[in-house]
Every structure is written in structure tokens, then in C-alpha cells.
Specification:
Oligomer: single chain
Order of helices and strands: EHEEHEHEEEHEHHHEHEEHHH
Number of strands: 11
Structural class: alpha/beta
Strand content: 5-15%
Helix content: 25-40%
Strand order of the largest sheet: 2-1-3-4-5-6
Length: 348
């Protein structure tokens, strides 16, 4: 058996936690990858499970350098370097956007790796940089949907976080929440982790990684978060079931104005039969049919958007659902675990 190791850069996910659905139900996709690769004669495990020199390939999910004490590379990358593991055995898979992991995007950090996989179309040269689509959990798509009249208008499901790098969309989520709480409180519900508490002080790290001059802005946001969020309905145990109760969902990525950055947000909404209102990847139409979602860029603001949502008739709404049905039946194969495994682990 060939041996591939993965460094998930998350303490919870070592000791093969990456494949443990009790930690996150979405890790079923990693279980599927593991089974798929085993049939191809490949053992895949987290990087702590075997000696590094036994691995044919070592994959790093993002280049993780940030600590409060140093800016050195991750522990296992350091070990690879110290043990003279050849660079052509080291693979970087860029998963996070630049505002979350800016270190993953620095050319000098790319020198540690022989091959780099990214969803950013603009970097692809098919020599060192190769394209992939981030794996989506396509299980649990709903077929029997509530009626148009049974659905409430609008929701947003995100954790309570912040960031202060250019093109971040955390602040726009907050703006949306405050707008709907003030102007359309009966038509909007907020879900996610942390909205019942003040902004976590740990998010000051995003200031330290980005622009230290934004510390006063963080402190202002921290104080304002004590006001609370009247629209907050709690966290969700079943995101798809919750989304299915709404006609629309605000699906704002963590960052806008970058090619190919498409996460689970729009897919979860589509799986639930809830029409996504999307903002993020500037080339989203390359990957998702424009008939299946509402592009927030087509509106001047939340008031303009809301007038459109409230005026929508059932027939027009069902056109979005029909496009959703067609896409989920025929257009998602390139987002499943097999294509991810083929693009990343079976790529020669």
C-alpha cells in the first residue's frame, strides 16, 4: 500500500480525527475519500500517525505559520525540513482565502512545496499550481420541500466572527443583521454559534495578522456586540432542515472579489431548497448556474434587495427551485469526494 499523510493544522483533527464524523458530520467526505483511495492501493492518515519518511506524499491543508510567539512554519513542515524530506513529496492544498490564511498565499512560503493546489483560477499554470474544487458534502439533499407559502422570508446562518483584512464580508453580515432587525424584524431570523455572547476577544488575532491599526475598530465592534442580536434564534443542529423553512438565505463568503472561492454556504442553501443570495467569488457564474441563485451584486443595497424578495411571486420563485433541481442532479459531480480525490491524491 502507498502511504499518503495529511496535516490538517488543527489539534482536534490529528490522530485521524479528520475522518471522524462525531467531530463534524461533514467529515463523511473524508471517510469516503479514505475508502475510495484504499481501493486504489493508498493508505491515507493524518501526519502524526506514521514516521514522515515512510510517506510517499505529505499534504498540508494550508500553510500555517501564525503564532503569537513566532512566524515559523508548522511543526510538521519543520520536521520535514529537518529530516530532509524531498520537496517534491510535499504538497500544499490552499483551502482558506487570503483574509483567513494570508500566509498560505505568500510566494516565499510556496518555496517549501513541490506542488500546490488552489481554487484560485488566476494562479493556475499546470506546472506547480493546479486547480481543484473544494470538496462539498452533497449528502442530504432535500427533495420534498415545504410550499412557498409555508416558508418564512429570510435567514442568515453563520458563526459570530470578525476580520479586518481587505475584501472581508464579516462586516457586511453584521450590517445585514442590523438592517433586518430594524426594518423587517418579522421577516428575518439569525442562526449560528456565538451571537448570544459578545464578540470573542480571540478574533483580535485577525487584526494582528492583518492591520494592527484596526485594533480600535475591533474594540468598537467588541463593545457594540454587547447590545445583542434580537433576531437570534440559536445555533442549529440540522442546518439543511433549518434552511428549508426559509425562501432565501444570505450566503456571504468570508471574502469577496477573488476567483473560485466557493464554500459550503451556497451548496447548503441549494441542498435545502432555499434560494441563495450570494456574494463572494467574483466568477461564481462559472460554477453555479445564475438561474439557481440571486446575485447580491445586482442590487444597490439591502432595501433594494428586500423589495425584490417581497415582490417575488411563487412562479418566479419556483423557477429558481427548478434551476436548483437541475444543477443538483447534473452539475455537482465535479464537487464530490471522487473528483476531489482524483484532483489532489491521484494527480501525477
Amino acid at each position: 500500500m502507498r502511504l499518503f499523510l495529511v496535516d490538517p493544522h488543527d489539534g482536534r483533527l490529528y490522530n485521524d480525527g479528520l475522518f471522524d464524523t462525531s467531530l463534524d458530520p461533514n467529515f463523511i467526505v473524508w471517510q469516503q475519500i479514505r475508502t475510495f483511495l484504499h481501493k486504489k492501493g493508498i493508505t491515507i492518515a493524518t501526519v502524526d500517525r506514521y514516521p514522515l519518511n515512510q510517506a510517499e506524499r505529505i499534504y498540508f491543508l494550508d500553510h500555517n505559520i501564525f503564532t503569537f510567539k513566532s512566524n515559523g512554519p508548522s511543526h510538521y513542515l519543520q520536521k520535514c525540513i529537518s529530516e530532509d524530506i524531498p520537496k517534491d513529496k510535499l504538497y500544499l492544498v490552499i483551502t482558506e482565502c487570503p483574509i483567513i490564511k494570508p500566509e498560505s498565499w505568500l510566494p516565499e512560503n510556496h518555496e517549501h512545496y513541490g506542488t500546490i493546489y488552489t481554487w484560485n483560477d488566476s494562479l493556475i499554470d499546470n506546472k506547480k499550481y493546479f486547480h481543484y474544487r473544494w470538496i462539498q458534502n452533497l449528502n442530504g439533499t432535500l427533495e420534498d420541500l415545504p410550499s412557498f407559502s409555508a416558508k418564512k422570508l429570510l435567514t442568515l446562518i453563520n458563526a459570530h466572527k470578525t476580520n479586518y483584512n481587505p475584501n472581508e464580508l464579516y462586516s457586511l453580515r453584521i450590517k445585514a443583521i442590523r438592517f433586518y432587525e430594524k426594518h423587517y424584524p418579522d421577516d428575518f431570523d439569525l442562526y449560528g454559534i456565538g451571537w448570544d455572547k459578545p464578540l470573542n476577544i480571540k478574533f483580535v488575532y485577525s487584526v494582528l495578522k492583518g492591520n494592527f491599526m484596526k485594533v480600535p475598530k475591533f474594540m468598537q465592534d467588541f463593545v457594540l456586540s454587547y447590545i445583542g442580536y434580537p433576531s437570534y434564534q440559536g445555533s442549529v443542529e440540522d442546518k439543511i432542515s433549518t434552511l428549508s423553512k426559509y425562501k432565501f438565505c444570505l450566503c456571504f463568503e468570508n471574502m469577496e472579489n477573488i476567483d473560485g472561492y466557493i464554500t459550503e454556504k451556497i451548496f447548503d442553501s441549494l441542498k435545502a431548497g432555499c434560494v441563495p443570495i450570494y456574494l463572494g467569488a467574483q466568477n461564481i457564474q462559472k460554477y453555479i448556474p445564475t438561474e439557481a441563485f440571486i446575485d447580491f451584486r445586482n442590487f444597490s443595497g439591502f432595501e433594494d434587495l428586500t423589495k425584490y424578495l417581497l415582490s417575488m411571486k411563487e412562479e418566479e420563485y419556483n423557477n429558481y427551485i427548478d434551476a436548483r433541481n437541475s444543477f443538483l442532479k447534473k452539475g455537482t459531480e465535479q464537487w464530490d469526494y471522487k473528483h476531489f480525490a482524483e484532483d489532489i491524491f491521484l494527480h501525477e
